[in-house]
Predict the structure.
Amino acid sequence: MSKARGNLLEGAVTFVIGLGLWRFTGDVEVPVVTLTKVGVVMMCVGGVLVAAGLWQGARSRT
């Protein structure tokens, strides 16, 4: 698997997990962190990984 494809896959999985945390953990209380905020951060990180994978894929074709 190429690095671009790996970043795309990892980013998509991270984004989906973050989306699930953001959407479905609003009423769950954890002592240290807020799970909805963790979900938003994971969605941002997943989006950056997907963008990096797309960039790497486009750069490797040229």
Summary: Residues 35 and 57 are 32 Å apart (CA to CA). The chain has a mean pLDDT of 93. The chain has two helices and no strands.
